[in-house]
Write a structure and sequence with these properties.
Layout: H1 3-28, H2 35-43, H3 57-67, H4 78-89, E1 99-103, H5 124-128, H6 146-150, E2 156-159, E3 162-165, H7 175-179, E4 185-189, E5 196-197, H8 205-211, H9 221-225, E6 231-234, E7 237-240, H10 250-254, E8 260-261
Antiparallel strand pairs: 1-4, 2-3, 5-8, 6-7
């Protein structure tokens, strides 16, 4: 027999055997999938951000159907997404609190400076590994844009040396906060009129001023002025309890270095 013809026959037979095995495997190893998983996956935001606590949108959809996970955990999708998922599952959506990212650093280029020139990989993680960063303030935003690259919604950019959030685009997924090596990005409830302290420096006041003119000096003026005792000063840094805060903004006016702001006003 012609060797070429023989080779063709052998390959064909092997192919047919393989096809039979695959068909048999698909029949005997078939795992039924609830159609609701696919429907829920389709209505989720598709960001695969992990804000829901799952590996991705498909994993979250599966956990809703198979494990009874809450239907309102898709932060990027918000209330509208929760309502659609609830409709598919035939349950109540429940309340969904809008979340936004806030950069708790005010150290722009004119308010702080660099302690050395970094010429390595343009990454916050990379510069953080070299003497804790190149900024005079070791607590501040490093400004190399790891957060901007992590954001799937183009909602955060480096402006004047630090990260700045576009609140209109931000969905509060938390991807930016997860990659920030100095943890200067927080995901907080969208309180329209409640202030936050945009600084994380825990050094003593004099040392803070040397590193950044926009750093909290722990003077306690804000805490003394607050009528609801919503502000405490620990480790030379003011902190606002959002649950106690009523949004009177007396602390904003009292802060001598101007680092207490209402994010919605920015």
């Amino acid at each position: 027999m012609n060797p070429i013809l023989l080779a063709v026959i052998v390959v064909t037979v092997i192919g047919l055997i393989g096809a039979v095995i695959l068909v048999a495997a698909s029949i005997f190893m078939y795992v039924p999938v609830d159609e609701r998983v696919e429907k829920i996956t389709a209505v989720l935001a598709g960001a695969n951000c992990g804000a829901c606590g799952c590996a991705g949108c498909a994993d979250y959809a599966k956990s809703i159907v198979e494990e009874g996970n809450a239907v309102n955990k898709c932060t990027p999708g918000g209330a509208a997404c929760a309502a659609k998922v609830a409709e598919i599952m035939g349950v109540e959506a429940g309340s969904s609190t809008p979340m936004k990212a806030v950069v708790t650093c005010s150290g722009t280029c004119e308010k702080t400076s660099k302690k050395y020139e970094f010429e390595g990989i343009q990454s916050c993680q990379a510069v953080k590994g070299l003497y804790g960063g190149d900024g005079m303030c070791k607590f501040g935003c490093l400004g190399y844009g790891d957060c901007t690259r992590a954001c799937a919604f183009d909602a955060i950019h480096i402006v004047d040396g630090i990260a700045k959030v576009d609140r209109a685009k931000c969905v509060g997924c938390g991807a930016c906060a997860a990659v920030c090596p100095n943890t200067v990005i927080s995901i907080i409830p969208e309180h329209k009129r409640k202030p936050v302290v945009l600084c994380l420096n825990k050094d003593k006041g004099a040392d803070t001023r040397k590193a950044c003119t926009a750093g909290c000096i722990g003077c306690m003026k804000c805490a003394k002025k607050c009528p609801k005792e919503a502000i405490t000063v620990e480790n030379n840094l003011a902190k606002i309890d959002q649950e106690k805060c009523v949004g009177c903004q007396l602390c904003v006016k009292e802060c001598p270095v101007g680092i207490i702001h209402v994010p919605a006003d920015e």
